[in-house]
Amino acid sequence: MTDYPDECLDECSAERPAEKLDERTELLIGVEGIARLRAARVLVAGLGGVGGACAESLVRAGVGTVLLLDHDQFGRSNLNRQLLCTETVIGQSKAEVAVARFAAIRQDITTIPLPFFLQESGVPDVLNQYPLDAIADCIDSIGVKAVLLAEARLRGIATMTALGAGNRLDPRAIRVGTLGEVQGCGLARVLRSRLRRLDCDLDFPAVYSTELPQKPAPHIPTDTGIRPRAVNGTISYMPNIFGHIVAGEIIRGLLARG
To answer: For residue 18, is it within any domain?
Structure first.
């Protein structure tokens, strides 16, 4: 048995001072930074692998109001990568599960579930109904993605968009830049085409990968009325890294505002 000096034992057994919820965050960004995040309202559009990680990072950082948009329910195929998915929530609404999970993390944050499928025509109504400081664009539907970015630009709402994380393995290839400069990403190419039709510039900030993707599986029908789409292979860490980067860029933008 090791003998310790009496003073060491006294120090180790002393009661630790009470910790504050945002103590570690405040050490990094200060009281003013905490206040800026607490006053912010951010929409997370899509709560899959990317959006779920993004939303949780925003909540843990102390963003005051987080809107959680997703029409889907969790399935077993989500378990390999989606942070919000566990065996106990299979078949449940992603938006509602997110609200419950985040309430268990911290109860001083307002989370608003939006458990419906966002149509292109419905984007203006959502943005008019909910005042926002920023949008985390983590959705797959390219048409809605383009309209969401365009309408946000018209309203002066900051955006950060996630491009293709599927069919990729190399986290070292992840970059942050503008949509106009992205190469080798099919989603980016089609999104640029849609935005040009909406007479939009292509300088939207985005997270993307320079890794050439592997081939997706064949297109399969969906049960949501959306046209058949290809299924991408995914690995546990890639969508989550994308999501944390989206959250990080949004948080840095909120803190940089005067």
So the answer is: no
Could you tell me the residue range of the domain that residue 195 belongs to? Answer: 25-256
Give the CA radius of gyration of the chain.
20
Q: Which residue stretches of 106-210 are H helix? A: 123-129, 142-155, 186-197
Does residue 136 come out as left (phi exceeding 0), alpha (psi in the -120 to 50 range) or beta? Answer: beta
Encode pLDDT of 198-234 as tens digits: 999 999 999 999 999 998 767 666 665 556 667 889 9
| pLDDT tens digits, 119-131 | 999 999 999 999 9
CB 153 within 8 A of CB 178: no
Residue 3 lies in a domain: no
Reduced to 3 states (helix: H, G, I; strand: E, B; else coil), residue 125 is: helix
CB 209 within 8 A of CB 168: yes
> Pairing state of beta strands 219-220 and 229-230?
antiparallel
Q: CATH number, domain at 236?
A: 3.40.50.720
Query: In total, how many domains does the chain have?
Result: 1
Gap between the Cα atoms of 241 and 202, Å rounded? 23
Residue ranges for the chain with pLDDT beneath 50: 9, 12-13
